Amino acid sequence: MNPAPQTSKEAAVRIILGEMGPLLDRTDAVAKIITDGHDLVAKDLAGMGELMARVEAVLQEAAENATTLLQEQKALRSKASGPVSKAIPGAAAPFPFWPMAACCLLSATLALAGMMMFDRATVEQARIGRAVTKSLHLLDAPTRAKLQAAIQKSAGD
After folding, report:
1. Cβ contact 94:76 at 8 Å
2. From CA 83, how far away is CA 106, in angstroms rounded?
3. Which long-range contacts link 94-103 to residues 24+ away (Cβ below 8 Å)?
4. Which of 38, 105, 125, 153 gets the most CB atoms within 10 Å of its CB?
5. What does residue 115 show for φ and ψ, rounded to 5 degrees?
6. Taking the C-alpha atoms of 142, 129, 36 and 136 in order, what is their torsion angle to the nearest 10 degrees?
7. What are 41-83's pLDDT values in tens digits?
8. Contact (CB, 8 A) for 104 and 62
9. How many contiguous H segments (helices) and E segments (strands) does the chain have?
């Protein structure tokens, strides 16, 4: 049992400590949410690092394949410029299939990399949504209702 305060200063300190207790509890809860959010962001960044490493490997492979295709095209052109094409005056050069194939492969790889980069925004929005959902119970009822109404409104847009 706590003895009664002897001075007005002791009474004021007890009142302040009584009001600070719930605030400190809420601060601990917010710190836990921030720590959890930090862990989620670190996990997402690690995943993005792995994705970027895979994209870099695919781009490197595409560049190597394009080089190989160009070398094969040069070999085919040198074979095509042999006696058959010289025997037919005005014969058209062979259709440049390999450079087109290399360009298509490179374009598809770049499109895939662009889609993966676009997905980063979706990951960021999901992270923010998880943080808001976790901290929703800390808000008072009117603020929570306003936030949920804003979320519903933005989901409808």
Report:
1. yes
2. 34
3. 98/69, 98/70, 98/72, 98/73, 99/69, 99/70, 99/73, 101/69, 102/65, 102/66, 102/69, 102/70
4. 105
5. -65, -40
6. 10
7. 888 888 888 888 888 888 888 888 888 888 888 888 777 665 5
8. no
9. 4, 0
